[in-house]
Design a protein that fits this description.
The complex is a heterotetramer. Chain C is of the alpha/beta class. Chain C has helices at residues 12-17, 21-40, 51-61, 80-96, 108-120, 145-153, 155-158, 196-207, 220-223, 237-248, 253-264, 266-283; strands spanning 68-73, 100-105, 135-140, 185-189, 211-215, 233-236. Chain C has a six-stranded parallel beta sheet with strand order 3-2-1-4-5-6, with helices on both faces. In chain C, helix 5 links the parallel strand 2 (100-105) and strand 3 (135-140). The radius of gyration of chain C is 23 Å and the shape is elongated. Chain D has helices at 2-18, 26-56, 61-72, 86-127, 130-149, 158-202. The chains are: A alpha/beta, B mainly alpha, C alpha/beta, D mainly alpha. Chains in contact: A-B, A-C, A-D, B-C, B-D, C-D.
Chain lengths: 264, 214, 284, 208
Amino acid sequence: MSSVIVPGTILSALVLLVIAAASYYYFEKLKDPTYQPKLRDIPAITAIKEGVGKSLEENKPVHYQMGASGGQLYSTLVSMTLVALTFLRYISRLCAEMGAKLIVHMPYQAESIPLIEGTTLEGYREAGKPEDFKRENLRYYGRGALTWTQGVTASFAQEGVGLNLAIGIFYSDCPISLEMAKYMNGLNVGGTGRWIMVYAFAMMCDYVFLGEEIYAAAAVVSQDRMMLVGMLIEEVGKFFVFLLLGLGLLLSLVGMDVVALFNM
Amino acid sequence: MSATWRTLVPTLIVSITALLVLAPFFINIPALNSVQSILNSWTVIISAVTGCALGLVYMTHAIYASYQRNKDMEQLVMGVTTYVFIALHLGLALTQSGGVNSPAYQWWYTVVYQNVGATVYAFMFFTLASSAYRTMILNSVEATSLAVGGLIYTLRQIPLFQTWFPWMVPLGEWILLVPNVGGSRGAVIAAALAATVYGVRTIWGKEISLREVS
Amino acid sequence: MSDRPAGEDENIIVKLGTLPPSKYFLVHLAGIILMFIPLIYPLGLPVQTSQVVIDYYNTIENLPEGSVVAVSFGASASLLDEQEAQFLATWKILFSNKLKVIFYSTTEDANIILERHLGTKVKPADYGYTYGVDYALLGYSPLGEAGQAAFVKNIRSVYPVDYYGTPLDNIPLMSNINTESGVDLIIFQYTSCTDVEWVIRQWVVPYNKPALITTLGCCGPMAAPYYPSQIRGFLSGSGAGTEIEVVSGFPGPGAAMSDSKSLGILPWLLSMLFANLAWFMRRK
Amino acid sequence: MADLLMGLVGTFFIVATLSVLWKDNIVFRFGQAAVMGAATAHYMIMSATSIQSMVLSQMQILPILGLILGLLMYTRLFKGIAWVSKYPSSVLVGVGIGVMLAGTIKGQILQQIGMTVGDLQTALYTTGDGMAILNSILIFIGVVTSLVYFLFTVEHKGTVGHIAKVGRVFLMISLGANFAGELVWYQTQMIGRLMFIIQELLVPLGLA
């Protein structure tokens, strides 16, 4: 038995089990059509609509970027790519409904292009205007964060910025595009789950999603109950973490090797 | 039928693939390890195949549309420049002995790509500086925390201030190793939980971001 | 935010603290000039060293002569300015301590940089090193975290031959080494901040292998939570590069940058001071 | 001569990139177009090289299946069959989800908790140093309060609001430290470019 189970994975399996059990509980609860999960307010969400309106008033395009390297589909950051796609669907639907021009700056991972195009088109379809979708507004700048940064900056400078919505996986290249959007008097709204880069959003955005808030915001903008209960499942996970922290503290005070315990 | 092939099958592919890749983390069965390694190699191959030309197609669309919108000489020159540099690099890689390792290819790659790459990062010094000038104002508890953390750790890294204020070094290290660790650990745990929930939901086939992608 | 431009009737401090972007360009220009001057006329300002850098140095120094060190080299050409001092000083310390070194590159650029630098700036032959006996270059393989996991279990699965195409079995240094057990210290040199988790998950947690890391300045905060229990010491950014040059006594490019950094930051710091003063004055 | 040419062309691209600090201009646009071409070509070449070494040089069934999946990505370009590209995309996402779940739970949740309480334990029982104890208590408070900030089902009012506010302070200090790390790094990059201009252009021209 011990040779089949990989050592040091028991506690991980337990966490996964807790999340899976909470998921099952809430998915079952969703069968009741009157059940409506609620989340606290996230001010940046309302700013997105405001930004599209501003773009229309100023006759400037809405820009959407998910990061130069935001098309990671087979890495540990894939969940952020999925969040970015949820926002892409939302912003393309919103732009189609309100009649604003949307420019999508695609990440350099070419393998993510089909999903991006499909998601954008889906947004236009949901708004009932698939004919408004134009492939030329999906911009690709070649491999590497640097060409991407230059391409986005050039697009901002040449086409103007009404709203710049930046959600996804961002690395050290993002300050330039965020600052350039600001320089062009665009409304900056954005966030990333990569903590190391959140500072750039906190400093340069008019409205920011701090770290994990992008996941919650994605649930809200999707208007999908399944996504919203996802946040409730996550809260269960957080309370489990509080429990582990408390338990760990107690055990450490009585002298148990807690580091080894959490490597179990 | 159509919904099955367009929706159900891709959802199943995601779930099964994810479980096959995840399983060897918990269970030690050689066959599972082999399957995992095949799937891993497929991801590299798929991304390489798309990297060969798909991006170029989309780039061409945007360049052509841009020229159609604004048929002036400058647009034409810029469009042509991109293709000249594509042709130059492809030509060197195909004709020079050693391909991308040939001195001619390396020369161009270094001169164009490395220089611009390094300069773009250099450029960011100015963007961050102007942004901090606008936002690092001590007008609230949060903004003050950001500004104090930022300024102390900046000064800690600058030799002149290390000399003038030697206490800046231990203070900067303290900022890095205590409040920074406390805050960033909380943020990392929270984001990891969110990612885990996304993962579980995707395996369950309930993830909306992949649903009905046209 | 003090982004409302100063009016005609406002004082000079408010005006300097609320410069519009078009005028803030002058602060950038002053910064460039002040960075440029010390590169021509160095000032030679002293440098303070921190414990984390001293720990990094001591970890290598305390290894017995002949110990094997693996260097996972994931540098990027466009980020070399930030890390070159760290790389050069580290390699000099390794060679001067007569340690056996296995270099393996994990990014496309890394191998080009490694070969160029070992051929010009830190020549192993100057330390009496022989290729294949005292050090080896395994070449480039696109190792992600999964690749690192493969490396620790079976080096030959990811690097069957060295950079020059020689099978590892024919290289004296490598003939008896194929897993992490043959390595006494791992030095992980990388540019993507989250990669620190790779060395923790693949080398430290399962094998308790002593680990050091060198990375960009911005990645220091991400590496800090793992020091000192899991990472014995780390160098983040060119500042730490200068410090390791001082600690080790091997001067390099970090020293030249040090003065330039000190002067170049001053216009920005001054502008920050004015921005805050302007805000307080307006509030009054 | 080749070195001087490298200095000249390299400096041109450095200046072209930086020139947007002044405003958008034709030199900047030219530089951008050139780099886009260089980067696209390099990506295409490296991708083709990977296919050559992983598929074409072996011609085995499994890599060929991977190649076919990759080619299916191109169906995106054709209206009627665009949905077929979901198949290879699904393989990529599936692998990503598996890899993510495997790495995240242990490394980013459990070990982070372990280190938070472990540091406190070490400070209390091994080091015994007052400062170390205080620091590890501060880290513990930082972790708990910042996690409270990320609670979305509870309104940030009353006690929870106060705790979340403390958490936000910890988060902001952390963001400040991240900012500082990046700022000085970018400054180093700028100095590096100035050094390039001095060494590759001004020195060969006898100007420095």
